Amino acid sequence: MQHSDETQRAARREAARLDAESVRGVALTWVDNAGLTRVKAIPTGRLAHVAGRGVGMSPVFDVYLVDDSITTSPHVGGPDGDLRLVPDLERLTVLAAQPGWAWAPVDRYDQEGRPYAACQRLFARRMARRAADRGIELRMGFETEWVVQRDGTCPWTGPAYGMARVVELSDYVDEVLGALGAQGVEVLQIHPEYAAGQFEVSVAPADPVGAADLAVLVRETVRAVSLRHGLTALFGPVVEAGGVGNGGHLHLSLWREGRNLCRGGDGPFGMTGDSESFLAGVLGALPALLAIGAPTPASYLRLEPSRWAGVFQCWGLENREAALRFITGAPDDPDGANAEVKCFDAAANPYLVTGAVIAAGLAGLEAGARLPAPVQGDPAVTGGAAVPGGATGAGAAGGEATGGTGEPRTGTGTARREAGTGPARLPRSLPEALEHFESSEVLREALGDALFEAIAAVRRAESELFAGRAPQQIADATRGRY
Ligand code: GLU
Ligand code: MG
User: Fold this and answer.
1) Domains defined along the chain, listed by start
2) What pLDDT score does 5 carry?
3) Is 140 in the pocket of ligand 1 (CB under 6 A)?
4) By the 8 A CB rule, do 332 and 315 touch?
5) Centre of ligand 2 from the C-alpha of residue 21, in Å
6) CB-based contact 266:258 (threshold 8 Å)
7) Distance of CA 165 to the CA centre of its chain
């Protein structure tokens, strides 16, 4: 915990600024293992005190489920104990769609001021630092998808990706842009998505912790603007069972000394060896990572083929049906080269996502993992034909960091898959993903026992909570919770 005089002075300056802007309350948020953003709010006048000492909150929230019921894990549970939530003042933001309010994310410490072992944001920070120790900086960005409804229905008729939807909800979309802009969030694009009333906004990349903070800020901003328009924003993985869901795709690129390692190399589609190894680590770990990125039974209702949700454990150039989509960047924006993990959804805790993806990627780097051949087309339709000449992988390293698809690897990059051997489907259920998660030594080591076990306990409990329920019941129970 930072008790320094400088922190106190900065907090007093910020409090004065907030006061001048008629801000009365500061919402201090963190995201639990179920993916829900929890809050303690303080009056602006308490900011300097809280910046030093933190504000209390029980550790039991680490084992809360999506319906606010509570489970236990070996390290967390029960009514005892307390933690200190310490706001990150560098992210303090006056909320444009909530007059009178500001927001800051928190790190969590124990009462002695030591980092709390199960703090998700500190975990993400630790992993970013681990990458930095290897000279690698990650730039990341989450896409936010949501469905708007009025009184429980979608009265708008505008088609998928249609201008009509933007016209129908013109003031609303304008205010979303306005509020994000006023908060200093750089929006890259906003558009109607496939499902009725569905939108997506994507924002400029940031460091891993910053990207997760932005995911929270963007979502709460969209929620607030929606309410001001008499609308409800639904961020759950599925709104209508059997329909296209809300993804929470993660874009990432690796940088060293200001250079984007996703381009300018002699690996597949120009990626450097480091970039290839990192992505191979992520690809190989996807079955286990799903327990982080697709954390609730509703996630598996979304994870269906041919919905751009990326349910196959493969990668491809601009392939929206591959779990890992590689993007080379436009000729006029070569720095835009990046990879997108598509199988994750908006129920995921973004801090766990960024941290766990870094852990998996670094394991790939460590192992010198290589990517399998890229896949073109929708594996559900084509069986997943590999692209000749795309991959240059010289055989896969063993263990968790390999592609893990059971695919033949190639030393020449020209091999085609045998007929009928498409890429593997990612886990089809939360228990299946949990099994992979629980046998991942990489994730256990990175998360630490306390956080690892709390996540596993929440996943187990949510599996039990929804066992035997019909898909639409699961959708109804979760779509408005996140
Ligand atoms: N809504 C889709 C999903 O569930 C993603 C659509 C897109 O590619 O942006 O992931
Ligand atoms: Mg989208």
Assistant:
1) 5-116 (3.10.20.70), 125-143+199-211+239-478 (3.30.590.10)
2) 83
3) no
4) no
5) 35
6) no
7) 26
